[in-house]
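Board notes (copied after class):
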Amino acid sequence: MILIAIILGLVQGLTEFIPVSSSGHLVLVEKLLGFQTDNFHLFLQFINIGTLIALLIYFRRDLTKLVRDVARGRDLKLFRNIIITSIPAGLIGFFFASFIEETPFFGSVWTTLTAMALIGVVMILIHKIPKMRAVKSGEQLTAKKALYIGGAQVLALIPGVSRSGSTIIAGRLVGLDNAAAARYSFLASIPIMLGVTLKVFLKSSDRAYFVENLPLLLIGNLVAFVAGMFALKFIFHFLKHKDALPRFGWYRVAVALLAAGIFLI
């Protein structure tokens, strides 16, 4: 069980911020390695805490400035945009979480592989897709563009899509460059990740699971945190390459095809 916690924490941390789909990779790891754990999805929700902490620490300066600006009532555009972007996925995730978890479509490995491949193709073709007028940062986004990115974030509820992948693509399409799209994507994901973390503690049965599996969850979260910090540094360095998204796209398509071949054998 300790080995499983380490592997899952490593996969969660490395793929949460890289646009290759953490949920997709975790589903594939579960299926390919034959992990049989009780409340598997609940375990994955809890090790999201490690990546959330990594995100908060990595963007601590941005968040500190954002809080100060909000407290002083000045330069509120970034805060407004983050809230707008968070609303669609937040509402759907809150009201339809049980439906999503219980519907076979969302739990199907073929749904995951299809989503990984399709978003991969979009990343490969991203340079050929028409874009809106260039925008330098999330602060300069209009409310409508922030909502577009929020709509893209809803797609991440489908395993294999990737929250960072869908929002970075949307950010590119509304005019942001790679780095600015990634920065805004991660900042806008914080409210959603906080909501998911808080929601999982609302049920007494979930809190009991957390207490009963605390040692394993601590190990998984520690690994996810370290891997997440590494992934954040990597992604911003890698996105300096103009063809960064197409490279991730080819990776997604290759993984999807390889996994499909393995499952069909």
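Comment from the instructor: The chain has a mean pLDDT of 89. Residues 164 and 186 are 7 Å apart (CA to CA).
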